[in-house]
Amino acid sequence: MSQRLLPRVGGGRVAATEILKGTLRVKDLIRDEERTPELYDVLKEARLDGMQAFDDHLAELYAQGIIDYETGYNAATSSQAFKMAATQVEVLRQTQADAVRQTQVA
């Protein structure tokens, strides 16, 4: 497990975490230096096993309004991946806001 403390919207700090479990596949990848870069793929694929990539957690914290865009973008391992996730969050927020407006008009 790895964590970074980031500034929280409104003050304070929040832990952004990455969780990598010591499964057989992970252990094999760690032993073989040439395959170590595949660990990131394991993190992305093994969410159901309780693993979590750091950038995915940043996107969740941003979606929940716990951190702001700039904090997530600057802390991300892949700023491009965070930017794409944040764009999806913004589209979802806009869609939800439009639905609320339509309900209020009707």
Notable features of this structure?
106 residues; mainly alpha; 2 strands; two-stranded antiparallel ribbon
Strand content: 5-15%
Low-pLDDT stretches = none
Largest sheet: 2 strands, antiparallel
Task: Give the number of DSSP strands.
Answer: 2
Structure class? mainly alpha
The outline comes out as elongated
Strand order of the largest sheet: 1-2
**Count of separate DSSP helical elements:** 5
Helix content: 55-70%
SSE pattern, N- to C-terminal: EEHHHHH
Overall average pLDDT = 90
Count of discrete structural domains: 1
Distance between the termini: 49 Å
Radius of gyration: 17 Å
Description of the structure:
The structure is a single chain. This protein is mainly α and 106 residues long. It has one domain. Helices cover 56% and strands 11% of the residues. The chain is built from 5 helices and 2 strands, in the order ββααααα. It has helices at residues 24-31, 39-45, 54-63, 69-75, 79-105, and strands spanning 2-7, 13-18. The protein has a two-stranded antiparallel sheet. The chain is elongated. The model has no long low-confidence stretch (mean pLDDT 90).
Give a short summary of the structure.
The chain is mostly helical and 106 residues long. The protein contains 5 helices and 2 strands, in the order E-E-H-H-H-H-H. It has helices spanning 24-31, 39-45, 54-63, 69-75, 79-105, and strands at residues 2-7, 13-18.
